[in-house]
Amino acid sequence: MTGMTAQMIFLAFFGAAAVWFGIVVFRTKSMVRSALALLFSQTAVGLMFLVMQAEFLGVLQIMMMATEMSVMAIFMVMFMMDPGGMGAMDMTHQKRLSLWAGGIGLVAALAVIWLAAWGPAVPNIPGAAQQAADLGRELLGRSMFIFQSAGLTILTAMVAATMVAIAPRKERKE
Amino acid sequence: MTIIWILLAFLVGAYLIAVLESWAVHGRLQPARPAFSALALLGRESLLARTPDRLFFEAGPVLLLVAGLLAVAVIPLAPGLIVTDLATGALFLNAALAYVLVALIMAGWGPNGAYGMIGGWRFLGQFVAYAMLIVMPITAVAMRAESLSTVDIVTSQAALWNIAYQPVGFALFVVAAMGLAWLPPLDLPTAPGDLAGGIEAEYTGVRLAVLRLARMTVILALAGATVTFYLGGWLGPWLPAPVWSGLKILLVAGLMVSAGRLVPRVREARYLALSWKLGIPLALTNIFLVGVIALVVPI
């Protein structure tokens, strides 16, 4: 029982940390701080996975977010006319719309949490190695099509974004 | 107790690598040199840049040290001599080393100085080049071991070390590791001579000492990873297991800090082009070949 309680405390702590860093993303005036706050928010989510004994998912989340958020930072700095991210800029825009969207999202999330039938907690969690094996079988079995199409969609979006960002050949010659 | 012994072993290792690096740089073997430079750094005033981002400035070197230590935690020195044998060890090593990048961006951006900032962003550019070439060779190693545990990866090499089983993966991994530890010729983030130290430019005194110690830990972790993944870890005849690990790690680290000094510094764009146009196709071929061999020949 004490193990369970400790687990709950850590889960709540990292959850609160994730929310706090999420707030910092919009409170700061610096692009780099904003990007790194988002990174630490996602790292806290990864730590929540670890607390919930999902080792592979936790480590994967912690690894992917470090790289993804940093790459996002470099793209922000490249495209936002803010050399090095040194200039101060407001991280919020379309405030009324964002408030409504955020509020509705919160209500929806709370409704799902309260109304869904979650069922009992799994008593016997498989070991970390078994979890990784199970995940691999799931990814290459039932869920393969979903993951492959998601990957292809992201790749297409990346190519399209780069195409939009690069100046046309005519403009570059001048 | 084991943890203390391992940390002590790695501390000695970090010192020896510092000796090797100063040998490679200055051409003279001076075993006391790192101790004297450390004392000099600790005795010097630790200056604070004007209007710094104080949080990032202080956190950068410490985060780098933490990342290095976490990476070291999954490197086995002998059977049972490991801080923690995670079922996802190889992935964990990667996750820990991903924060080297975060630490360097923080350290580069924190002091609010041009050289540091350029150094930090340069490392981010360099990351885009080396990142895939760290992960993809490890994938092939894990495929052969059928496990992500670093201990299982070492025992899977009992019959044949991975350096012979997948030499292409070994070469790619070592070069990418040198990029990750910003060792010459891939030392663009510090670039002595054109960036005045880059990310190290604004650090002095005890903060610089932490930054340098952290870098040695990262180099040690990468040498340890190379030995674990490709050189059979603690495996070897006659000598006891920890001695083999130590010797191999020092040899790899020595080669990593010295060999690159014989070639000129590689430009960012060239490194990116080589990594993506040559490195990634080679890494994919390596994964394919290892898959075929693992299915056909049971070694």
From TrEMBL, chain A:
Gene3D superfamilies: NADH-ubiquinone/plastoquinone oxidoreductase chain 6, subunit NuoJ (1.20.120.1200)
Protein topology in the membrane: Multi-pass membrane protein
Catalytic function, reaction form: a quinone + NADH + 5 H(+)(in) = a quinol + NAD(+) + 4 H(+)(out)
Transmembrane domains' residue ranges: 6-26, 35-52, 58-79, 99-117, 145-167
Enzyme class, first EC level, given as a word: translocase
EC number: 7.1.1.-
Sorted UniProt keywords: Cell membrane, Membrane, NAD, Quinone, Transmembrane, Transmembrane helix
GO cellular component: plasma membrane
Compartment list: Cell membrane
Example GO molecular function: NADH dehydrogenase (ubiquinone) activity
Database matches in InterPro entries: NADH_UbQ/plastoQ_OxRdtase_su6 (IPR001457), Nuo/plastoQ_OxRdtase_6_NuoJ (IPR042106)
Main location: membrane
Name of a matching Pfam family: Oxidored_q3
Entry's family note: Belongs to the complex I subunit 6 family.
Function recorded in the entry: NDH-1 shuttles electrons from NADH, via FMN and iron-sulfur (Fe-S) centers, to quinones in the respiratory chain. Couples the redox reaction to proton translocation (for every two electrons transferred, four hydrogen ions are translocated across the cytoplasmic membrane), and thus conserves the redox energy in a proton gradient.
Protein name listed in UniProt: NADH-quinone oxidoreductase subunit J
Organism the protein comes from: Jannaschia helgolandensis
Source lineage: Bacteria, Pseudomonadati, Pseudomonadota, Alphaproteobacteria, Rhodobacterales
TrEMBL record, chain B:
GO BP annotations, alphabetical order: aerobic respiration
The organism's place on the tree of life at top rank: Bacteria
Keywords for this protein: Membrane, NAD, Transmembrane, Transmembrane helix
Membrane topology note: Multi-pass membrane protein
Listed InterPro entries: NADH_UbQ_OxRdtase_su1/FPO
Location of the protein in the cell: Cell membrane; Membrane
Any one GO molecular function term: NADH dehydrogenase activity
Coiled-coil parts of chain: none
Keyword Membrane: yes
One Pfam family it belongs to: NADHdh
One GO cellular component, as annotated: plasma membrane
Residue stretches spanning the membrane: 6-25, 55-78, 90-111, 123-143, 163-183, 213-231, 243-263, 275-297
Record keyword Lipid biosynthesis present: no
Protein family per UniProt: Belongs to the complex I subunit 1 family.
Name the UniProt record assigns to this protein: NADH dehydrogenase subunit H
Natural source organism: Jannaschia helgolandensis
